[in-house]
Amino acid sequence: xxxxxxxxxxxxxxxxxxxxxxxxxxxxxxxxxxxxxxxxxxxxxxxxxxxxxxxxxxxxxxxxxxxxxxxxxxxxxxxxxxxxxxxxxxxxxxxxxxxxxxxxxxxxxxxxxxxxxxxxxxxxxxxxxxxxxxxxxxxxxxxxxxxxxxxxxxxxxxxxxxxxxxxxxxxxxxxxxxxxxxxxxxxxxxxxxxxxxxxxxxxxxxxxxxxxxxxxxxxxxxxxxxxxxxxxxxxxxxxxxxxxxxxxxxxxxxxxxxxxxxxxxxxxxxxxxxxxxxxxxxxxxxxxxxxxxxxxxxxxxxxxxxxxxxxxxxxxxxxxxxxxxxxxxxxxxx
Length: 334
Hints:
Blueprint: H1 11-14, H2 26-49, H3 56-77, H4 82-94, H5 96-114, E1 119-120, E2 123-124, H6 125-150, H7 157-195, H8 201-229, H9 241-261, H10 264-267, H11 278-284, E3 314-321, E4 326-332
Antiparallel strand pairs: 1-2, 3-4
Helix pairs in contact: 2-3, 2-9, 3-4, 3-5, 4-6, 5-6, 5-7, 5-8, 6-7, 7-8, 8-9
């Protein structure tokens, strides 16, 4: 994974019109393309087995990482081709955003499955994930704009540095959103201690620890990218591909594998673990759609006697969700 000795022959670097400023290791590129392809096929299979449509997001992240190294191989073999070089360069910068978005989506579903209120700080679970995904898309657009500006044809050093600065701004925004998200994840963990049934806590914590681990790995990768480009195009870090493999690709591969091992679909199985549809939530009422943890709690406090129920006191239980509506059953309070 390190550059060859400068005195050795290197077709990718020695060509007068090459896109490469150092001699890349094609063997390492093949190896990582293979590893990312393995986790890609695993995520596709798991999304089908567990029937979790939202897992296409993590599969897309694995696909972009795989394509990144396929294009890198093509660029090494055809070092004068600008298109291959631009493709792998842009993909390696942007692919982690898919993994980041998936983390946001997973925690939103955890809030629904493992709390009674389906809320964190007053934000409903289905909106919680949506808001952060939209922020992630914004960071994605900023980073994409910067990456495309820094990888165009016949650019001056000033133009390249401007593109890198825009990209770094997008990366900085991504980290700000991650820090805010971690704060909400910690709040969720505290809420989970009080609301999650004992039998569900071990699996909830396993998945939450994976969420924390992935966010830490993404943060390390962000710090690496900020350090790498803080010195502009004169930085020596891009001239040593070992740094990229250690502080970018290996970290993102680890994120993908962690979600293979602790897959959300295995710990939140079944159709009932999915968010209620908008129609179902509307049928239940704006403030009446509860989290799934409510199903395992004791019945609500005694309510006033109902004349339709023989004067006995009844309280609402967990809403029963069918294909069209959410309805509340009733049981006698004792």
